[in-house]
């Protein structure tokens, strides 16, 4: 134990010094606890049970959350500017509407994620779902710019309670070797629907009504059907709770539920890695917000009718979903996030680069580029979202009903602070994306394409650099402190990811 403490002290001294200073190698760490032995047949059955319990409902919620967030682009083609914005010839009022969501999201995601630790997860997310469903439906009765701007703001406010917290929620149930597949499947539930309507209601009002009401209903279903933390849920037997705790402790350390470590909050606030990943997420969200709000308009600007433009948005999203699912399965298998993120963002950047230089008359080439952009955008977002939480120090909440489970304080608090920092940086890109495709610059959109292209290539370089850092830092820790058993528990209660026994996912 003394060797372990001495090595940790040396590691802290090394971390606090300037990086160019030579540090005397710390002594080898004391051996960790014995690897945790688990019945893998029982674990497989438990994972399937968790999947059935979580994935269908979470995918459905996210589908309608994404629709409520992105349906403004389709509403634009169905008469909303003419009805509420006086025609909006410059496109600036529509850009403000698109940005209203992200103003609220950025402002409230940080306090929302911190507060979520103090409440039951199912109730917190259920209330959020009800809230954005109501706000989305109220857009139907808006009669001017101010009314619909307010509704969009509250859609963003309630989604700020939900979206950043989802990354944390998934880590309560899935290990780092399982989470990319689940987040990828969850994220693949996005979609944009083409809605036709008859009668007195305008088509864009039907769009908001049909896509907002299910969110309202799903909120009540979430409160009833979605489990809170595994230790608080009556959906698991005592044996299953013990198995969940054991499997999550492999390479991880638990934390007291609903506790908050201000030390780890401060560590997250000054962790440069969170900000580098925020740069990656910033570029992705510039593309994501412009795709959701402007892709139908971009395709319509290629010479297609509004109805055809909405229909032609489906294939790029579908191809992006297929590539996404293939990539996240491979990422989990080989435990690497940086390479697929860097590769996919380079592909997306290439799509924007081609759009910058080709003649607008080459409609088929421009349409092909939208496939590259969707691959680059939708493949990388779930990988980025699941990459950094597990690189801030492992954790799993204490199972107080299980007396034989060792209780320490892990780094859930660092994640609860780091996730909204990461999300806020990324959603600033969403605001930028709302303004770089004004209608007056169509169909070339040189400024928007060039800027997004540059941000995608910056994201690709940042992901490659960060992945390389994680790889070489793991090698350095193996050399200085000795190799660790990936199945043994790692105590990150004091140092989080700076614990000498912790290893990053590159």
From TrEMBL:
Q: Which UniProt keywords apply?
A: Membrane, Transmembrane, Transmembrane helix, Transport
Top-level taxon: Eukaryota
- What Pfam families does UniProt report for this protein, alphabetically? MFS_1
* Tagged with keyword Transport: yes
Its subcellular locations are: Membrane
Where exactly are the transmembrane stretches of this chain?
54-73, 93-112, 124-147, 153-174, 206-226, 279-299, 311-331, 337-358, 365-390, 449-470
The protein's topology relative to the membrane is: Multi-pass membrane protein
Query: What protein name applies here?
Result: MFS general substrate transporter
Q: List the source organism.
A: Calocera cornea HHB12733
């Amino acid at each position: 134990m003394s060797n372990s403490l001495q090595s940790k002290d040396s590691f802290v001294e090394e971390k606090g010094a300037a990086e160019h200073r030579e540090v005397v190698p710390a002594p080898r760490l004391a051996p960790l606890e014995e690897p945790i032995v688990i019945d893998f047949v029982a674990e497989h059955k438990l994972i399937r049970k968790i999947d059935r319990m979580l994935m269908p409902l979470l995918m459905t919620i996210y589908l309608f959350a994404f629709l409520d967030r992105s349906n403004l682009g389709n509403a634009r083609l169905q008469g909303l500017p003419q009805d509420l914005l006086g025609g909006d010839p410059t496109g600036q009022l529509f850009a403000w509407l698109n940005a209203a969501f992200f103003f609220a999201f950025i402002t409230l995601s940080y306090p929302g994620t911190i507060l979520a630790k103090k409440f039951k997860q199912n109730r917190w997310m259920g209330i959020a779902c009800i809230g954005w469903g109501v706000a989305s439906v109220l857009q139907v009765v808006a009669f001017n710019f101010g009314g619909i701007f307010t509704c969009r703001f509250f859609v963003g406010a309630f989604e700020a309670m939900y979206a950043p917290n989802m990354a944390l929620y998934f880590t309560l149930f899935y290990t780092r070797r399982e989470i990319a597949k689940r987040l990828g499947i969850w994220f693949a539930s996005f979609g944009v629907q083409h809605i036709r309507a008859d009668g007195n209601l305008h088509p864009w009002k039907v769009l908001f009504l049909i896509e907002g009401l299910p969110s309202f209903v799903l909120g009540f279903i979430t409160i009833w059907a979605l489990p809170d933390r595994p230790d608080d849920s009556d959906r698991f037997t005592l044996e299953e709770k013990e198995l969940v705790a054991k499997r999550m402790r492999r390479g991880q350390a638990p934390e007291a539920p609903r506790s908050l470590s201000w030390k780890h909050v401060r560590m997250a606030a000054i962790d440069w890695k969170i900000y580098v990943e925020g740069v990656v997420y910033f570029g992705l969200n510039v593309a994501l917000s412009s795709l959701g709000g402007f892709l139908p308009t971009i395709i319509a600007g290629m010479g297609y009718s509004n109805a055809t433009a909405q229909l032609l948005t489906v294939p790029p999203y579908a191809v992006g979903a297929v590539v996404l699912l293939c990539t996240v399965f491979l990422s989990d298998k080989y435990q690497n996030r940086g390479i697929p993120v860097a590769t996919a963002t380079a592909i997306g950047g290439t799509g924007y680069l081609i759009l910058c230089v080709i003649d607008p008359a080459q409609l088929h080439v421009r349409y092909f580029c939208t496939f590259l952009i969707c691959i680059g955008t939708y493949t990388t977002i779930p990988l980025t979202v699941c990459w950094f939480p597990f690189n801030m120090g492992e954790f799993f909440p204490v199972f107080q009903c299980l007396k034989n489970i060792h209780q320490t304080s892990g780094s859930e608090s660092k994640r609860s602070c780091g996730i909204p920092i990461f999300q806020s940086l990324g959603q600033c890109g969403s605001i930028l994306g709302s303004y770089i495709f004004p209608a007056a610059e169509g169909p070339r959109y040189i400024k928007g394409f060039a800027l997004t292209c540059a941000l995608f290539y910056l994201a690709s370089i940042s992901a490659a650099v960060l992945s390389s850092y994680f790889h070489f830092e793991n090698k350095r820790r193996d050399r200085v402190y000795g190799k660790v058993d990936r199945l043994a528990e790692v105590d990150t209660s004091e140092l989080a990811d700076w614990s000498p026994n912790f290893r990053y996912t590159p």
